Request: fold
Amino acid sequence: MYPTEEAIGLMRKANRIAALSGAGISTEAGVPDFRGPTGLWQDPELIKQLSATGFRDDPEGFYSSSMNLFSTMAKAEPTMAHKLLVRLQHIGKLDAVVTQNIDGLHQKAGSSKVFEVHGTYRTGYCPECGADFDMAPFYEDIENGRIKMPLCRACNVPIKPDIVLFEELLPEEAWNGAVEAMEECDLLLALGSSLVIYPAAELPSIALINGAKLIIVNLEATAYDSAATVVVREKLGDFAASAMAAFT
Ligand code: APR
Reply:
């Protein structure tokens, strides 16, 4: 039996599916991944810039290095794989989506229970006074050259996007929700992730320990392939199109 057919068979039998998505679920929407052949981390400079130290030492450089990615995310539309998860939610098979992505495409697709364990680029906060901000107007001002970086008016310090940068802790509420989703599911769909970045990469283990089966859909090998019941080495768009047909 082909892996896609086997995966769809498991999805049919499952009652409580959870999804763990990575950057690979958004590449067909034009958002680059990190470790794929044309991933963002091919540029070591960018890795330094998009870190907590990079933001602290050079917030202007952080924003100038990020704006290309942020505007790509803002223009991106959900992929067939994002839509498949919404379909599974509508037929009562999928409880929660845990994502390592910051692009907000799961919510844009219509998923209602999304745990963003690496945060989001869409909102931000003032590190000084803690005030929260919608970042879209600031991104527009940066793109139009009106500002180089957003400042908190009250404190006159750079506003930071709600993104978990290297060296930072994951948001507690999202992490707790993600762990609960792993504990409760009977089938985990790991979609478009290399599954190498901890602590997010610990999540599939939690699902497996709780007796869930694991399906991995990823173009390249992942750290969990040997633990998966099914590995689908296909583009997520193709897999999702086949699976969507089976659940429509
Ligand atoms: N279909 C299937 N798989 C794909 C597709 C696609 N269309 N496009 C890319 N992939 C696969 C790549 O082969 C790669 O193995 O998706 C995987 C993405 O892996 P990464 O680039 O490592 O992204 P991710 O796993 O989300 O990274 C986790 O690392 O840098 C940090 O915070 C960042 O959230 C990110 C975390």
Observations:
- The radius of gyration is 18 Å.
- The chain has ten helices and nine strands.
- Residues 60 and 149 are 6 Å apart (CA to CA).
- The longest helix spans residues 59-75.
